Amino acid sequence: MQEVFRLRESTKSVRESIDPTTGAITTPIYQTTAFLYPEGERYRYSREINPTVLELAKKIAELEGAEAGLAFSSGMGAISTSLLTLSRPGSKILVHVDMFGRSVRFVKDYLSSWGVKVSVAPADNESMIEMAKDKHDIVFVESITNPLVRVVDLEELGKTCKDLGSTLIVDSTFATPINQKPLEFGAKLVIHSASKFIAGHNDVITGLLAGDGNLVKAIDQMRRTLGTSLDPHPAFLVIRGMKTLKIRMDVINRNAMAIAEFLESHPKVQRVYYPGLKSHETHEVATRVLKGYGGVVSFEVRGGTEAAVKVMKSTSVIIPAQSLGGVNSLISHPPTMSHRTLSPEERKASGITDGLLRLSVGIEDVEDLVEDLDRALSKI
């Protein structure tokens, strides 16, 4: 299929390669371990390369405007494989304290024990950019942090990394290619836990990577060695989920904004974290670097862990669960769930309080979600 003009996001999300043998208009699931030894040696063994998985990799590259893409067995598989490929004993890596707990653990606990010099920036843009000026080989950030949705100033950070020759890697799970394209701000690689918004249905575990062709090629070789490869069936599910990514994110962006405004005015809520709100510390940055503010709204309730857990268990439409990014709204308590591996000191440094709840907004009717939250909050 020849591309003769610049395609927009919804079209990129929907379009697939036509199977050359059968003419199938959706990507087949090539559920096979090996392939008949072919001329040109393109396919041999599914851990290395599989046609279904390859189509998914092509699609994330197209959505991100990248030279190449890769698919992995999980988001952490994409992160660990990339960092293991690009770092060496003596390498300097900069991360920030308010990242996903497992990302912080991998860098601080594993890479540092391997001789990598790890610097951890505090949870503010100014400090992180200042630390980035002390050249690092790799700067690894989340474009929207988990769970306090602080928006990293990729515009300024990208300039700093480019000037110093640092490799900027961005976990853009919360933003998605619909709300932000980190490569446009100077990132060399963008990573997604595609289990979240990209697949969009809470039914698959997948990681994606897109970016500089030479870096992706090197990481691909490490992926084949480590075995962090994706099975073709989840690859098929992610391709299917991608087709509605743009329309889902349009609804999710609107729903999340309405819910954030509702929560900000609620007497039982102490504080709301959502970059679309003028009260958010990175609202100005968000207006510069995001096209939409995303589907995660975090908020603190008065009464600490007991009150937060009671709210979480009192919802009827919103599901208490640790994941995020699906069509169903999910609510979680980061201190005892997604960020439980962090020490109390690390959680405090990240701004995660005992009364914090993280809400992943879905595509339900927003009035139902607001009423559900109002009823749950009335229990405390």
Architecture overview:
There is one protein chain. The chain has 380 residues and is of the alpha/beta class. It contains 14 helices and 12 strands. It folds into 2 domains: 9-242, Aspartate Aminotransferase, domain 2, CATH 3.40.640; 245-377, Aspartate Aminotransferase, domain 1 (Alpha-Beta Complex), CATH 3.90.1150.10. It has a 7-stranded mixed beta sheet, with helices on both faces. The protein has a 5-stranded mixed beta sheet with strand order 8-9-12-11-10. Helix 7 (176-179) links the parallel strand 5 and strand 6 (189-193). This is Cystathionine beta-lyase/cystathionine gamma-synthase.
- The value of Rg in angstroms is 21 Å
In the CATH scheme, the class of the largest domain would be Alpha Beta
Low-confidence segments, given as residue ranges, are none
Strand content: 5-15%
Biggest sheet overview: 7 strands, mixed
What's the rounded overall pLDDT mean? 94
Instruction: Give the termini separation.
Output: 58 Å
Secondary structure elements and pairings:
Blueprint: H1 9-14, H2 51-64, E1 68-72, H3 75-86, E2 92-96, H4 101-111, E3 117-121, H5 125-132, E4 138-142, H6 154-164, E5 167-171, H7 176-179, E6 189-193, E7 207-211, H8 213-226, H9 232-242, H10 245-264, E8 269-273, H11 283-289, E9 296-301, H12 304-314, E10 319-320, E11 330-332, H13 344-350, E12 356-360, H14 366-377
Parallel strand pairs: 2-3, 2-4, 4-5, 5-6, 10-11
Antiparallel strand pairs: 1-7, 6-7, 8-9, 9-12, 11-12
Summed up, what is this model?
39% of the residues lie in helices and 15% in strands. It is built from 14 helices and twelve strands.
